[in-house]
Design goal:
Length: about 90
């Protein structure tokens, strides 16, 4: 497959390879696609959570405070439930 990239993208990819973190252009592209896959999975999760709430307002939207620790714990609970239901990892 031949892909034509703008000069700026070529430079950025080459910089990644030169940094030593990646052995080849293929590795840079594969990693970028993996990140894109995770971002898309996160968007699906967000949509699933919204659908699950079925119009119910979140505590913050009702003006109720929620500590950062509680918010993170709730999010991880939902993420893990979503993973179990779909037998996927993000």
């Amino acid at each position: 497959m031949t892909i034509v990239l703008r000069a700026e993208l070529e430079r950025r990819i080459a910089d990644k390879v030169r940094s030593g973190r990646y052995a080849s252009v293929d590795e840079v592209v594969a990693d970028a696609l993996a990140v894109l896959d995770r971002a898309e999975a996160a968007e699906r999760l967000k949509a699933d959570i919204r659908a699950e709430l079925d119009g119910e307002k979140l505590p913050a939207e009702r003006g109720e405070p929620l500590s950062a620790d509680a918010a993170v714990a709730r999010l991880w609970d939902r993420i893990n439930r979503w993973r179990r239901e779909r037998h996927e990892t993000v």
